[in-house]
Amino acid sequence: MKLKIALLQLLPSEEPEFLIYKSVSACMKARRLGADIALFPEMWNDGYALPQDPVELGRLAVDADGEFVGAFGKLARDLGMAIGITFLEKHEPKPLNSMILFDMYGRPVLHYSKVHTCDFDLEKVLSAGDGFRVAELETRRGTVKVGAMICFDREFPESARILMLKGAEVILAPNACPMEINRLSALRTRAYENMLAIATCNYPKGHPDCNGHSTVFDGVAWLQEEPGVRDMCVFEAPAEEGVYMAEIDLDMLRRYREDEVMGGRFRRPDRYGILTDSGAEDPGPTD
User: Of 57, 65, 86, 230, which residue has the fewest beta carbons closer than 10 angstroms?
Assistant: First the structure.
């Protein structure tokens, strides 16, 4: 099974009608190119605008079951293609940074809100999501288990590890920051250590603090029938705006996961208690 993902590396617009027009046009192009999933950058409905004034922030937030998000469910159904739409979600006491994945029938199969909000910066005005979820996504080529993490979630190995333990084969990762060597290395590492694919969609250059370079890492570090190691980065976009297509060989990934040693096979969770004790300090080994 070859899963085709369209990374919609687009510049947003402050004009709602043009934003919808641009969104629909990009999704239609993705479908023409054979995409099974189209993914938007982080918080697409307002271009990752985060005013610190609660009234202005509330004005930009939209309901998860409202007109903006619902339009992408209808579009997914009309195109027969899954769409991962991102948005600033209305929520009390503070909004959420969210993504809903609609399947090819227009059904919402995954609703995720960013757990690791950037509370050191503009995202201090947001609420954090309540956990990581995995859904079975039916596509024209078959079914795939999909999870999500958003931007800063990437920096915490627990994010991808939990998704892997819940069965994720592919992680969709909307983004809004400069994709440089260290952040790209974090994505590579999350894919390597969990034997899963990660598709990241960023804003292009021209958007504040962003530079494109959306990526797909397929999680397969080596193959027994091939010498040496593979580059797990099967796609990296340039900086410019565009609809970029990438392909994940799920059959190859599934065979790899059956035989190789990363992921959950040799974990020792009984030794990891400190990870769930927020007040604990590691005393080091004792004899």
Answer: 65
- C-alpha distance from residue 235 to each of 4, 229, 246, 247 (Å): 12, 17, 6, 8
Q: To the nearest 10°, the Cα dihedral for 170, 174, 178, 182?
A: -30
Say whether pLDDT at 286 is over 80.
no
Give the pTM.
0.95
- Region 15-41: mean pLDDT is 97
The tens digit of pLDDT for each residue in 62-74 reads 999 999 999 999 9
Mean pLDDT of the chain: 95
15-19-20-22 Cα dihedral, nearest 10 degrees: 140
Residues facing residue 100 across a β-bridge: 85, 111
- φ/ψ of 163, rounded to 5, equals -60, -40
Length of the chain: 287
Which numeric CATH code is attached to 2-276? 3.60.110.10
β 170-174/142-148 pair status: parallel
Domain residue spans of the chain: 2-276
Helix axes 67-79, 16-32, angle to 10 degrees: 20
d(CA 2, CA 133): 23
Q: Note the Cα 235 to chain centre separation in Å.
A: 15
Q: How far apart are CA 111 and CA 247, in angstroms?
A: 24
